[in-house]
Structure prediction request, 237 residues.
Amino acid sequence: MAFPTVSDAATTAVATNDATPTANYPATVASDDLLILFTSNDGSGDSPSYSAPMTLIVAEAGDAGGCGDGAAYEFAAGDEDGGTVDWTISGAEESVCRILAIAGAHATTPPEGALSGSEKTDTSPDSPSVSPSWGAEDNMFIAFYAQNNGGAATAYPTSYADNQVTAFSSAASGNCSMGLATRELNATSDDPAVFTSDTSAAWAALTVVVRPAAGVAATPHGVFGHPLHGPFAGPVG
Prediction:
């Protein structure tokens, strides 16, 4: 068993108010990749939603003066390279999103996630604890936040040292932003520490966990390194 890894990624910023934004797929997508879309949208009470080929992991609407956040996934067909996929906001708003192409993820187990719930207004977006149903394996944990009025991440959760990124829908007033980072951890749960944002503004956050690919059982070997066999010449194990 080995930890899943991000093989490629793409960020899409939509600087105009749009209820049906388009997200860019990464330039290189393999047929066995897990694709996860993370979205941040401006707007009080406006929530993201997703349709085929994407399937919802978690999502929530923005509170008054806040941002909506969400995540969705699909198992890649392998023909997505450099293409696009649509998602929806319940009202026309600015947005920014990122798609991760993840290699080494479990081929049939969907990623799982948790939401922060009610928004807060400060400089410390806090992704919630998540406990995967499959338990302790070589999991990838992904922390993500959405923030109103442009809060760039200046520090990331402790131990979330991989795939760090922050981005904005636009440079204009009334925009939204996002921050994302990942870590590898063999554990039954994780509760990420806080991000640090350079702006005190309303934020929402989520955490997603990705299960590793199923391991291949090893063939047992004898003392001289030769495979062990049963009475009918078949390998033991």
About this structure: The mean pLDDT is 90.
